[in-house]
Amino acid sequence: MMTTIHAKFDLDYGEFRLNVDLALPGSGITVLFGHSGSGKTTLLRCIAGLQQAPKGFLKINDEVWQDSEHGVFLPTHKRSLGYVFQEANLFPHLTVKGNLQFGLKRTGQIGVDLTHILELLGIAHLLERMPDGLSGGERQRVAIARALALNPKVLLMDEPLAALDFKRKQEILPYLGRLHTELNMPVIYVTHSQQEVAQLADHLVVMADGRVQASGPLSETLSRLDVPLAQDRDASTVWQVRVAGHEALYHLTHIAFDGGTLYLPSLAAEVGTPLRLQIFARDVSITLQEPIATSILNVLPAIVTGIADDDSGHCVVQLRLPGTAGVPQSVGNQSGRVGTHSLLAHITQKSARLLGLQDGMSVYVQIKGTSIIN
Amino acid sequence: MLSSADFATLWLTFEVASLATLIMLMLGTPLAWWLARTRSRFKGICNALVALPLVLPPTVLGFYLLVMLGPKGPVGQMTSELGWGTLPFTFPGLVVASVFYSLPFVVQPLQTSFAAIGRQPLEAAATLRAGPLDTFFNVVLPLAKPGFMTAAILGFAHTVGEFGVVLMVGGNIPDRTRVVSVQIYNHVEALEYEQAHWLAGGLLLFSFTVLLVLYSALKTHPVAHQLK
Q1: How many domains is chain A partitioned into structurally?
Q2: What is the ipTM of this complex?
């Protein structure tokens, strides 16, 4: 993976300390995930220069934005970045157009064609309006457009959906999803929502207590047993797949990934359409022999790669599908950016003992349900 | 009706108040900006010093200014050495005294509106490539416009209404330091109640109108609304 963002910060507030050393990919969406107080927003603000870590090093592509050892600290307004705040933070005294042009005037790009961005975010009809008269969702879309318009080297987003209700979130998420395919700038996105992680992340950084717990391609990181996410009731893995065909008779859609085929309830999507498929650990069960007579359509061979017990009688089993061989597929491969095809299964500890599950065992997984994200 | 001497006092009052307001805005803006954003331990002291004229009898302030600016005071000696003479009983002295007296009426509304803007718009501006000065003139000033209106109007109106400080520092010299409030006092002393009525009534009407305009304008101003 070609790393183009290197961020290293040490900042001590006494009761809270941020101490990270991260290498992040120079393309796609990196999600900083963690609970409140985990330091994810502080990290983002350090990257933006809105907060200055006394000890820090930050390099974006070949540009050094901070190097405390050599007394380098580029102030925020000299950094080529876009920042989307939790609250849209539009200038109330300017129209939507005025807000969009604010940065363009200062970078000498005033004549630049914004048609594409206006279309991408669906705000072309709002240009003459004042921010006061916009809905929360519209305001946030304008804020995203305002940041994108400058065509920055990196786009930073601090929980851009947190202040919106469910309906508004659903209104914006598709626009954010399009950032994957439509933009080539790296995005660093802060959230505490697992749904947004599953929907948006290519690369996932899990933070806790000001430190990085895990950092890697989405699927790999989601299935790591040493990260508390895998123990969560909503633990899941996300696969990048594509539509392979339709079986009209049974109202099924065939989904292809490089470890095999899955059957899903009929989807209104053309053959070849790339999709994100989320598989919850609670929907995966394990058998030792290939089940011959089962109502479950999706049965795949898999290899146990790890088991972790919790303290309530359950355990998480980590599995890998053969044929995907653990090779990270994030290298320039658009369709496989989220990584290897790993799976998590939540089963009872009793079942695990009865089956005698161990690392390296070949088993079969039955997938009772999946959800298509986009 | 009003005599030409009365009109002279009106004009002089207008001149003092305008000049003092201009100076207060220039001094008060950076001061209020600093007070609104600093975490310095001197903030409390500075706030208290600025607010002092609100509670101090004007004669007390006038007395100290007179001593400071007079020939034996530190400021008076400095102005003498600079060849400017001493300030008491002169027009510039009157303006200086007015600035001290009315400063809280300018600083406090500015400070409040600067504080109400918060750090968010400033951060947004920085992420959109605006440097600190650029941000101040193109984001802070427009957002703080109601604060500036309030500050200018209150500063002006309060200077028009001063009496004690004027009498102590300015005296009662026709065409040079005799302002309306002093002239009213003169008329009353001389039992010229009719002229006192005209001036006093005029001042009353002026002050009421100013406040009425201020409060109704602020209620409807979109940015003021935003700041609440």
Answers
A1: 2
A2: 0.83
